[in-house]
Amino acid sequence: MLNWVRPAQDPGVERPGRPSALPLESYAALGDGRSVALVGLDGSIDWWCVPNMNSAPMLDRILDERRGGFFTLTPRGEFTSHRAYRPGSNVLETVFETSTGRARLVEALNSGSGGRLPWCELARRIEGLEGEVTFEMRLVFGTQADTICPFLYTNANATTFHAGSVIGLLRYSDGVRIEEEGDGEIRGVVGVRAGGRELVAILAGENEPLVVESPEVIDARIDVTHEEWRQWCAGIRFQGSYRDAVIRSALALKLLLYSPTGAIAAAATCSLPEGIGGEKNYDYRYAWVRDASYTIKAFLRIGAAAEAKGAFTWLIKRLAEHGALVCYTLEGGVLGEEVEIDLPGYRGSRPVRRGNQAAGQHQHGIYGDIFETAARFVAGGNVLDPHSASVLAAVADRCAETWRQPDSGIWELSERGHYTMSKISAWQALARAVELADGGHVPATCRDRWARSRDRIAEWVDANCWSEEQQAYVMVPGGDKLDASLALAVRFGFDGRDRLEKTLRALDDRLGRGLFHYRYHGVENDEGCFLACTFWIIEGLALLGHRDEARLRFDEVMAALDTRGAGILAEMVDPDTLAFLGNMPQGLSHLALIQTAATVDGCPL
Spelled out in words, what is the top-level CATH class assigned to the domain 3-232? Predict the structure, then answer.
């Protein structure tokens, strides 16, 4: 639980009415299976793409503090606030305390009893707890870097707002007083006393008719949404000592599952920096094979079979349609070119980007990711259809043919090379392909070729990638840099326990900073520590038999992260301040947490 205190401000302060950008860890996420909104601890929603995660943002103050769009419900004057998700739910509750009283803000991107609504419904309920609290409401429309001009339109039924292709409607209960209504902003005031209750909500869609729901129906749907989340969590089978943390991360991953297609987004945001003021600001609102595969495995491990099956089916179809690419759009297409957007960026971190350059890269790691997913799928007693099996066999052939070629590596580097982790991933792919062929799950026509290539890769890695001086597998043959992703080789079952143990200890020692770890040597000055890497190293320790040590380390990391945010993790963390860095919610961080918690608890892989 995070607490926030708003300092006294000059009432004439320039829009947006707060002294500086909020820390990333002060944001929580709301989602409905299609879009995700980030809401700050001060009651401001500063990021929301409508109607989809990868749509242009309607609210984007997180990337443009002075001119971006936002939707605030904030108490007047000085206040303190604390918040948490309802147990087993993505419905968020924030309690505000002022000199005159206390009130609770309950928020959700609503769903119905039959699942996702055919429109976006962002509901915000204010409940009076003690005394009286007056909230200021502001809905400021973003202009998508001055490429659109929002406006209001009134007809006999309603006043709607229009922002590019988005049509929306502000709905509110009788206690909300609208003071200003213009093309660029709607401003109002709402007060609640103890026992009172008011509602403000946005209904929105894209180039489509819009249903005008009553505030009472929208308000009731918040509780329907909560029950839907609780029912989903009740089906999660994980019962270990870290169940609460696993459930919270599973709920975060569920927000990233794009329900119209089954794709899994790497994160819900764009261009949040890996280092403040730096240039590592990327668009993660796409489906990476790596992230999707790891998420599928995490879902399988905790018993979320429907989500795992949907995402796996989506992945197989993309492989059949486009081949083994690094990433795809959430709709299943191929990414276009990356472009820069003329926005100042979070705390001045430019450039702001749309698209991702990784789309044009090749990474051998995708082969291992695909086959590990397939292996875990059938290990759970599930069945591959003939079409999927033939697609996988073709991918195995491609891996056997190309593993000797340089690639961009797991970290999507601009310099192609013979990255050790890429070779191990190719080994992993062919090892799993052989196992699947032996089990009758994929055609065995080229089984022997896959086996020979698997063995050649292992011999090549041991001959070229081990450094006696470093006492570790190094990032590239002949180099001295270490790569934290090599901790995954333990989970992959790569041969050679002694070398893996020494590598893991070297990674921990030389890439560690406090409780956390950098991705590889050379990034210490321009990005934070990568949360997934820390979890991978801890999981590796547990898999190598050091479970007590791993549990202690995991508990320390979780205790540190519990002081930040509401359970939503970013990509990275500043090891000194624990400030979050990078896009969020970050799928890799949450799925790595789930896998590590399960391994430390001794759950089967």
Answer: mainly beta
